[in-house]
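Minimal example, chain plus zinc ion.
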Amino acid sequence: MLDKVDMLAKAPADRMPREIAPGVFWTGDCLVQRHKSKIYHGYNAAFLVAGETASCLVETGHPKDFPVIERHMNELFAQGVPPLKYLFVTHQETPHCGGLGRVLKTHPNAILCGDVSDYHLAFPQYEHRMQWMKEGDEIDLGGRTLMMVEPVIRDLRTTWWGFDTRERVLFPGDGFAYSHYHEDGHCGLVAEEAVSLDLPDVSSTFADLALFWTKFADMNVYCDRLDQLIERLGVKTIAPTHGLPITDVKVTVPKVQQGLKAAALIPESGTNEKVPLAGASAATPAV
Ligand SMILES: [Zn+2]
Ligand SMILES: [Zn+2]
């Protein structure tokens, strides 16, 4: 595994795929997001978990990321990572499952697992390759398993989180979601390396834009539940779909929780920055 100094010396484009824990590879590309006149970067990441006999892809990335994720996976397979046997997506939303059909087509032996509601409607040709899983169920990759665990921060009713039982890596989908600063060179860094990143602020912004229900819930209860899950599972690394990976759980998780609690206290600001159209004028009411 590359150490911190090697990674910081690399150009951001050369940092991926990145091994964030033994046999767990971060793949994908950034997405530009404009908000309050600032340019943020976010990830719609996919993670390849390599066992001794099989690999599992966690999430598929946004459709625009598929060529990059496929290239990253092929690099890893060429280095001897076992073939893809499973695809697990946390829920049915485009940044998480937008490459699902292409992954199943490219890897004809791969099985889709998790809550597989409705996927057969879009892909009836792959219905026989869909495997239902619920909390506590595991898939065997050889020497390690991927287990379904409680989705504390869930975007859809069908959400599950994944957990690698060997290296104790949590895959929380939309949990621990936050953007990063491209100008500061944060792309491809883990949260603890991105020292100039204001984690409470970017976590709060993401919750404000994408997790509107946090406005109407007591986030102290959710944060306590997150702490309990992390403690119960003995989580060592967190691999969020949208945030930078967390490698120091004790130090970094409280900063993200601070953002979630702060976002809950401010009114929702809407999901898109309003850009005035050139030449637009106020509409005149019909009389
Ligand atoms: Zn998401
Ligand atoms: Zn970036």
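The longest helix spans residues 219-233. The chain is about 25% helix and 20% strand.
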